[in-house]
Amino acid sequence: MNRSGSTPTPANDPGRDGDTPHSRPPAGGSPTDSGTAPASEGPRPGPVTADRLETALQRLVGSTAAARRLAVGHRTGHLRLDAVWGLDHAHGGGFEAVAVLMRNAGRTAGVLLSPVRRASEVAPAADLLRAMLADRRFDADLAQAMLDPNRPFDREALVAGGFEPLAELRFMDRPLPGPAIADEPPATRSIRIECCGDADPETLHDLLKATYERTLDCPGLAGARRVEDVLEGHRAAGRFRSDLWRRLWVDDEPAGLSLLNPNPDAGCIELVYFGLVANRRGEGLGGVLLRDALRAAAGVGLPRLSLAVDERNLPALKLYRRHGFVPGAIRSALVKRLRDEPATAP
Q: Alpha-carbon distance 45 to 177, whole Å?
């Protein structure tokens, strides 16, 4: 099972190499319109003012040119930074730590943290995260962060700031159309796969929940969000096309989901979700559904199919490798629940 649509991808992380995050439409409310941090004897975390935005972003990404691109993207509405908070150096001269929040569809928020370079920076960075996420103007149930696993102080700061480790995510991709994969008919005979992007939402909600049962893929997400919000997040990952959302039926019962979204900006199609109901695993049906996804993806015209999978999900890793996916980067996913219970539907 793949839950790659539930967590941010490295493309959302502008830090470490100067790349720009994916653009998002304006979501209302500027992070630089919230005023300044309250006066105190020493620096305290607070929203970054507009005149210091580029300085803060430079601390985040480590590059003046990349910081300028991010600031311009935000000001022109091509990129939405819903909150930019900073903690000044005690003796002036810039920011000790910077955190950015970007709201996503499905009541989640991606969080970026400036590099934590030494142990003495862990506590200030954690204070900054706690202060920013305590601001209830952010209408989200879950905050998410992605880290290079080789940055231990970043992880310490996030954990001290209230985040919990979720999974080590392995990113994989394969070329399209790529090598042919022979069909391996399972023992079950009554099988059909149909487009389901325009299906009744309630039936999709029920099937998605059923695929979560006894999952090996990010089990810590169970109950963290409403299923409706999860599906909304999947729709917003890349460009939704109803014909690329596929539902597997076995013996006239729904048995699995494969959700593909093109992402032309990244030059790929993303497998944003892939899962089977618990009582149909181990029957060879994952291969049937994945081969159908490969055929559907090959007709889109993008060169690669990409996904992310929990490193603990050994059956899924084996399935993807068998179908030509090549392992790539690994990232640590951490989450923080912003409410005791997910928000109820309006």
A: 50
Report the alpha-carbon distance of residue 126 to residue 145 in Å, rounded: 13
Determine the Cα–Cα distance for residues 161 and 7; give it in Å rounded to an integer: 18
Kindly state the percentage of the chain with pLDDT values over 70.
Answer: 84
User: Is the preceding omega at residue 177 within 30 degrees of 0, hence cis?
Assistant: yes
Contact predicate 60/54, CB 8 Å: no
Q: Which domain range does residue 119 map to?
A: 6-169
Domain CATH code at residue 53: 3.40.630.30
Model confidence, pTM: 0.82
Distance CA 153, CA 41 (A): 27
A 10 A CB-CB count for 119 gives 11
239 within domain boundaries:
yes
Distances (CA, A) of 151 to 13, 77, 113: 14, 31, 12
For 43, the 3-state DSSP assignment is: coil
Q: Which helix (H) or strand (E) holds 77?
A: none
User: Which of 167, 236, 184 minimizes the C-alpha distance to 25?
Assistant: 236
pLDDT band at 274 (very low <50, low <70, confident <90, very high): very high
Strand 268-276 and strand 304-310: pairing?
Answer: parallel
Strand blocks (E) in the chain: 46-47, 83-88, 95-104, 108-113, 142-147, 164-175, 191-195, 245-250, 253-263, 268-276, 304-310, 326-337
Dihedral sign from CA coordinates of 214, 220, 225, 230: negative
Say if residue 165 is in the same domain as residue 184. no
